[in-house]
Amino acid sequence: MAEYDLVVRGGEVATGFGTARCDIGIRDGRIVALAERIADGAATLDAGGLLVLPGGIDSHCHIEEPARGGYVGTGGDAPPPVTVSEESFVTASASAFAGGTTSVVCFVPQWKGEGILPRLADYEQRAARGMLDYSFHQIITDPTDAVLEREVPQIVARGIRSLKVFLTYEPLHLSDEDYIRVLATARRNGCLVTVHCENYAAIKWRTAALLQAGLTGPKYHAWSRPTVVEREATHRAIALAELVDQPIQIFHVSCAEAAEEIARAQHRGLKVWGETCPQYLMLTGADMDRSSPEQGAFAGAAFMCSPSPRTPEEQARVWEMIRRGTLDIVSSDHCGFSMGGDQGKAISGRDASFDAIPNGIPGLAARLPILFSEGVSKGRLSLDDFVRLTATNPARLMGLAPRKGMIAIGADADLALWDPAKRVRLTNALMQHAIDYTPYEGLEVTGWPVATLRRGAVVMRDGVVQAEPGTGRFLPRGPYPMIRPRGVLADGFDAAPPPA
Ligand code: DUC
Ligand code: ZN
Ligand code: ZN
Question: Which residue, of 57, 74, 128, 411, has the fewest CB within 10 Å?
Fold first, then answer.
């Protein structure tokens, strides 16, 4: 019997410290050999002329997440609509594999008035139908004593190590008091807290004024939440995390002002990490002012997400914050709503004001090709930077390393075989998701995944995804040092002692 189930032969393997031309021996889904030349396995995959990258880890994806009014404006008097993301775990898996991503961390919702365990049970079943490997962030919108004291310890025991909070959105946002209670709970249970940073009251106030002035089209979404709204919430999220001595990650940073808050915190030694997304490098507020013959001004809704895309100048500043290492993860914030039909972007009608249009864009498949093309191919990033931003750093911060996010002996054989010279014009069909558009339609990229391996199985080759639904695995997370509190406390008093 052959020593290896599969040998990936002759690729330029991205180690995170430069590349090495070598063969990769895979057995039982794991990397067991890395050498200049290894013996034939039961099967061989020729990687000559290709880069071999760790499969992408997308640590911020909304997949099949039933939401009650989630991600729609700041609310009015009408009851918020219930939305179920059109993307199932099966379609999201296909999309991820098409773009070279092999694992995700996605979101278990909590609806106000409910606990977290029943919805977690439902979500576990949904996720188990996919082909991707996955872990969960638990959203907390209603931090009752029962949730924080009884249920959070139970989800931690089940391998969930991150809590997600929103500082805006009508049915989701937390008060400062509740945010502090979630931070303290995370500290007591050894979790990371991830934070959506925008000031709820500021957006609500500005939205009301815009609507009153008759400024209702999609482009005014950007006007409702200028950068100061994000900067203020980022500052507050960090200050309160410092008070509690709780590590946090700031999600989807769109502007330098917010990134500078993170840089200052990091300079003071706080455990604060910052993530950005391709939309803040590629889209601007002006995209929401687009119109089309079929959609009219509603066409701008295709680019609506929160925080809002900004300006070309802001994009350049975000690149700089990536280069400096302040922003050390690029995720997709994949959260797709189709433009057609009446359940996606048009759930409140095509004439709806901007505050009633669901926020979110699809980006699971586009993430790696865009970052490679705009980053590595255009000389803004090294290949090592790319690997860190898209795989190694998310794996480390989410407690998935060293099993995920790197090409090393013992790691899962999650690989993207990448043609760095291949030029592709992005189309919605190439994204292989369930959403009826991509905001990047027509963008030409240089660099493209020609095969994706998940735990040693070839799950995508030349754009054809082949994987059995139900083969994705849950990735339970235990305690890990990166998110251990620093132990720096005001007056030396610990108001929320962490586990021993
Ligand atoms: N922002 C979005 O655009 N969509 C999903 C959630 C979010 O914070
Ligand atoms: Zn968010
Ligand atoms: Zn999100």
Answer: 128
